[in-house]
UniProtKB/TrEMBL annotation:
PANTHER family in alphabetical order: ACYL-COA BINDING PROTEIN 1, ISOFORM A, ACYL-COA-BINDING PROTEIN, ACBP
Organism encoding this protein: Rhizoclosmatium globosum
Any one GO BP annotation for this protein: very long-chain fatty acid biosynthetic process
GO molecular function annotations of the record: long-chain fatty acyl-CoA binding
A GO CC term attached to the entry: extracellular region
Protein name: Acyl-CoA-binding protein
ATP-binding found in the keyword field: no
Family listed: Belongs to the ACBP family.
Keywords: Lipid-binding
Domain ACB: 2-84
Length: 84
């Protein structure tokens, strides 16, 4: 179950004062999925689903990271994005 700090960071990520880059958004997505679901066990999307593949790859990068560690990294990333 996600911590209160994680829930607050997830809410804050939706209202950042600037538009994050695609790489930053993908990093947030990957850490969020790892923290809430755990390791990615789905098949990689097909050739023509570019957005789906990018999201899958971002989540896959965090494979093996514990959900607690992913939560901490997600919170840290949101704080760094808020400081921009």
């Amino acid at each position: 179950m996600p911590s209160a700090d994680f829930e607050a960071a997830a809410a804050a990520a939706k209202s950042l004062s600037y538009n994050p880059s695609n790489d930053e958004l993908l990093a947030l997505y990957g850490l969020y999925k790892q923290a809430t679901v755990g390791d990615n066990t789905t098949e990689r999307p097909g050739l023509f689903d570019l957005q789906g593949k990018a999201k899958w790859d971002a989540w896959e990068k965090n494979k093996g990271t514990s959900q607690a560690d992913a939560e901490a990294k997600y919170i840290e990333l949101v704080k760094s994005l808020q400081a921009k």
